[in-house]
Every structure is written in C-alpha cells, then in structure tokens.
Design brief:
There is one protein chain. By secondary structure, the chain is mainly alpha-helical. It has a domain of about 140 residues: Winged helix-like DNA-binding domain superfamily/Winged helix DNA-binding domain (Arc Repressor Mutant, subunit A, Orthogonal Bundle). A hairpin with a 7-residue loop joins strand 1 and strand 2. Helix 2 packs antiparallel against helix 6, helix 3 packs across helix 4 and helix 4 crosses helix 5. It is extended. The termini are far apart.
Length: about 200
C-alpha cells in the first residue's frame, strides 16, 4: 500500500501552497463605528455583501436572458410565473406576485404580446377582466432557458461551497430572511447622531 501524504502536503513531503481565502467585496473604514454610534462594522459588511452577492447572482441570469432571448428581467419573470401556475392568470395577480405596479405590468404584457410570447383572453366568469397565458413560442424559450439558468446556479454555488457549506448557508440566510421580515413591522430605530469628521480630517498627511 502506498503511504498517503499528510493533509496539505505533496507526496515529496513539501507543503502545498495554501489558497488564500477570498475577501468580501464590500468593506467599511476602520473608523466606521466611531462615525456611526450604535452601528456594527461587521453587521454592515454582512448586510452590504449579501446585497452585493444578490446583485451579482441575479445579474448572471438577467444577462443571459437579454443576450439570448432579448427578455428583460421582468418579462422573464412574467413568463415563468404564468408557466409555473400551469393556467392563465389575471394581470393583477401576476403583478402582485412580482411586486410591481399594474401600470408596469400592462407595459410588459404589451411588449410580450407584440412578440407573440403571451396572449390575452377573456375571463370566463367576469367580462371586465382578462387572463394571460403564454404561447407555444414562449414555452419553447422557457424549456431551453430555465434548465440553463438552473445549471448555472449549480455551477456557481458548487464551485464556491461544499454540500455541507450550502446547507449551512441556507440555514444562515433563512435566519436573516426572518429577521428582515420582522423588521418590516418593527418601528424604525432611532440611532445616535453621526459623528462626521471634517474633510480636512479625512485627508492623510
């Protein structure tokens, strides 16, 4: 049996060069907590980096949708919502699920209809209402696009995190999500005044 090398070592006994841990993209200054009494530099860096990674991940999907199918993020989401429902939906319900205004919804639907990706049809129970369904052309786009997006999700996350780390991340993100939901109904926190330095104080000699 060939002896195994110690972890972190090459077969010749020399140490493997260690890969430095990546640094977060967002950092605050050393005097952050002095300038903002009651704040936490670590908490703000966590908050800022969660927002930044969300922007980066969503940006990957948005770029592919635009480049390959000329779909805006909202247009892609409209098609995915209707397709996922498995039945035609009212425009107001789609807007509610996407958290957009009915005016924006109407504009997006107009564009999708011109491209023959959705069709409007009368509501069977209320003549004042319409229903929206996707067309076979849109279905073909989604059948090609969605698997590609999910494959990218797998690639990006698996390149960064092990299975164990992914499960831990999901648990941590869930905690932040619930804290954010609670904050929506909590009163706005009144913090101490900002201790802002003058411009001259910020310039290093």
């Amino acid at each position: 049996m060939t002896p195994t090398s110690p972890k972190g070592s090459r077969r010749d006994g020399s140490r493997r060069p260690s890969t430095p841990a990546p640094e977060p993209l967002r950092r605050v200054g050393e005097d952050f907590e002095s300038e903002y009494p009651g704040a936490s530099a670590l908490a703000t860096e966590c908050y800022a980096n969660l927002c930044r990674v969300a922007d980066l991940l969503i940006g990957l999907h948005n770029r592919q949708s635009r480049e390959e199918y000329k779909l805006s993020p909202t247009a892609r989401q409209v098609l995915a919502v209707v397709e996922g429902a498995g039945q035609p939906l009212e425009p107001s319900l789609i807007a509610q699920r996407l958290l957009i205004t009915t005016g924006t919804m109407t504009s997006v639907l107009d564009t999708l209809e011109r491209r023959e990706l959705i069709q409007r049809m009368p509501h069977p129970d209320d003549r004042r209402k319409l229903l929206v369904d996707i067309t076979p052309h849109a279905q073909a786009i989604l059948d090609d696009l969605l698997p590609s997006l999910h494959a990218r999700e797998h690639q990006v996350i698996s390149n960064a995190l092990s299975i164990r780390e992914q499960r831990e991340l999901l648990q941590l993100v869930a905690k932040v999500q619930h804290a954010a939901l609670e904050a929506q109904s909590a009163p706005i926190h009144s913090a101490s005044s900002r201790q802002k330095r003058g411009r001259a104080d910020r310039i290093s000699p």
